[in-house]
Amino acid sequence: MGGLRSFIETLERERPDQVVHVTEAVDPAKFEVTAVLKHLELRRKYPLVVFDRPLDLHGRPSALPIATNIYATRERCAMALGLAPEDARLGLSLEYARRERATVAPTVVAATDAPVKEIVLTGDAVDLRDLPIVRHHAMDAAPYIDMTSVMRDPDSGAYNIAFLRNMYKGPRKLGLHMSPRHNWQIVRKREAKDEATPVAIVVSHHPAFYIGALNVSAFGVDDYAVVGGMFQRPLRLVPSATWGDELLIPADADLVLEGYVLPNAREVEGPFGEFPGTYGPQRVRWVVEITALDRRSDAIYQDVFVGHPDNWVLGSFPKEGSIYNAIKGVVPTVKAVHLPTSAVGRFHCYISIDKRVDGESKQAALIALGACDFVKHVVVVDSDIDVYREEEVLWAIATRVQADQDVDVIKNVKGATLDPSQVDDIMGAKMIIDATRPVRRPFEARIEIPSDAMDRVRLERLIPEDQLRRLG
Amino acid sequence: MARIFWVTCPYCAKRFYCHTEDLRHKDIDLRCPFCEREFPQEKSPRIDE
């Protein structure tokens, strides 16, 4: 099973337009990596970017290049799962939902067969300053590692993987932020017994590992098995340097940090620029003591450009398929479900249906709200609207909605703690906009060009190619 | 989003914000993300909440 490098090499071979190398030295701790990404974003360009010569936190050339912006397009995410880029819409969402349920149990290999064990450092030999850790946004408290942490439930033994932010605090010390989700439960169980919680921070691996980590399975489902489902073969694991078989780590990862979440220890952490595109505030949070570092000899450091499309696309399609399937059971004419990047890949949900009776649209919306607590505003449209083209959704709202008839607000529902508009820490308001045409009364038709005319008229024949190209 | 309060760093005069329940009126030094110095919130020249 290849690591990140094999994915980038495949991409460069099959879609060279998708990868950009920055060969000049850059200082990630001084915002130079994220400044490059932001400049590209301002030009509406979202390539995977490899920084070949980043500095580490000492200010010296790092042994590891950085790869980032990997997930900024649905097409690359589809390719990471072995799908064609053309399958990046509903096909990607549904395939994700299918693989999420088709778990594959992991397998354990010997250290000699594990690329992540090519270099193992323990104790004081580990110095996080040797890594090119990225400082992302102006108010961030420090450089942050923003990939996934792996912990193991002490009761069931199931592994949980989650994207958690880790603030650089010292050569072997990180500050850890957790929301009250699965990893938080694991740490709380350990802390009740005054025990430290073993944690493996998988800083870099093949993108399918991270895509699989975003599954919406219940607490207790083994995330290593879900990731195996994404790869469609067993995830290869290897005993960690710190705990051996007690905490297994991915054998094909590029870079893993091992450590303990210290019991009942808290320090200030943050602010940190979060997924909504706003800073999460400085808080009192957990502390991680690093005990070991495992990596490939040619490891690539990985980072997600949080609060930007790299982060938003990752938040969207893994939820879309399960929402679609939930709706399909009740509203069989559902056509598509999309969480657009304009709403950080989480807060807005666009649903298209072939409405047969009035009321179906609201039923579909309520299912979406129930299926995912991140979803805040649901817009239901008819199937003539392409939910992946936002201007069409907005057109439907403009022409098919009367606010007093078609908008509903539901108060005091569990929301997202990082939503800056939410007044309560846990609860927020949800909104349903029914932008479908009514079934029970005549409604004006959408204008259209006759399809035979569209087929007959070929733009390339009527407008010279160079003029078409100039149009962009 | 939980309640927050904006604080001005007494050393570099830049402003950042903190989680009210975690940190307001608590005996925990705040840490300026800009100059990275720590200070008790009473030393801040301005707190907006």
Structure description:
The complex is a heterodimer of chains A (472) and B (49). Helices cover 28% and strands 28% of the residues of chain A. Among the domains of chain A are: 88-304, Roll (Pnp Oxidase, Chain A); 329-435, UbiD C-terminal domain-like (3-Layer(aba) Sandwich), CATH 3.40.1670. In chain A, a hairpin with a 3-residue loop joins strand 12 (236-240) and strand 13. Chain A has 472 residues and is an alpha+beta fold. Chain A contains 14 helices and 23 strands. Chain A has helices at residues 4-14, 32-42, 74-80, 90-101, 182-192, 207-213, 223-231, 309-328, 360-371, 390-400, 403-406, 451-456, 459-462, 465-470, and strands spanning 19-26, 48-54, 66-68, 107-108, 119-122, 144-145, 148-152, 159-163, 166-170, 173-176, 197-204, 236-240, 244-250, 255-269, 272-273, 279-280, 283-295, 301-303, 334-338, 348-353, 377-382, 407-414, 427-435. The mean pLDDT of chain A is 96. The radius of gyration of chain A is 23 Å and the shape is globular. In chain A, strands 5, 6, 7, 8, 9, 10, 11, 14 and 17 form a nine-stranded antiparallel β-sheet that branches. In chain A, strands 19-20-21-23-22 form a five-stranded mixed β-sheet, sandwiched between helices. A four-stranded mixed β-sheet of chain A has the order 1-2-3-18. Chain B has 49 residues and is mostly beta strands. Chain B has a single domain (4-48), classed as Roll (SH3 type barrels). In chain B, 8% of the residues lie in helices and 33% in strands. The model of chain B has no long low-confidence stretch (mean pLDDT 95). Classes of the chains: A alpha+beta (472), B mainly beta (49).
Please name the defining characteristics of this protein.
heterodimer; A: 472 residues; alpha+beta; Pnp Oxidase, Chain A; UbiD C-terminal domain-like; nine-stranded antiparallel β-sheet; globular; B: 49 residues; mainly beta; three-stranded antiparallel β-sheet; two-stranded antiparallel sheet; 1 helix
Topology readout:
The complex is a heterodimer of chains A (472) and B (49).
Chain A: H1 4-14, E1 19-26, H2 32-42, E2 48-54, E3 66-68, H3 74-80, H4 90-101, E4 107-108, E5 119-122, E6 144-145, E7 148-152, E8 159-163, E9 166-170, E10 173-176, H5 182-192, E11 197-204, H6 207-213, H7 223-231, E12 236-240, E13 244-250, E14 255-269, E15 272-273, E16 279-280, E17 283-295, E18 301-303, H8 309-328, E19 334-338, E20 348-353, H9 360-371, E21 377-382, H10 390-400, H11 403-406, E22 407-414, E23 427-435, H12 451-456, H13 459-462, H14 465-470
Parallel strand pairs in A: 1-2, 3-18, 4-12, 20-21, 21-23
Antiparallel strand pairs in A: 2-3, 5-17, 6-9, 7-8, 7-11, 9-10, 10-17, 11-14, 12-13, 14-17, 15-16, 19-20, 22-23
Chain B: E1 4-8, E2 15-19, H1 20-23, E3 30-31, E4 38-39, E5 47-48
Antiparallel strand pairs in B: 1-2, 1-5, 3-4
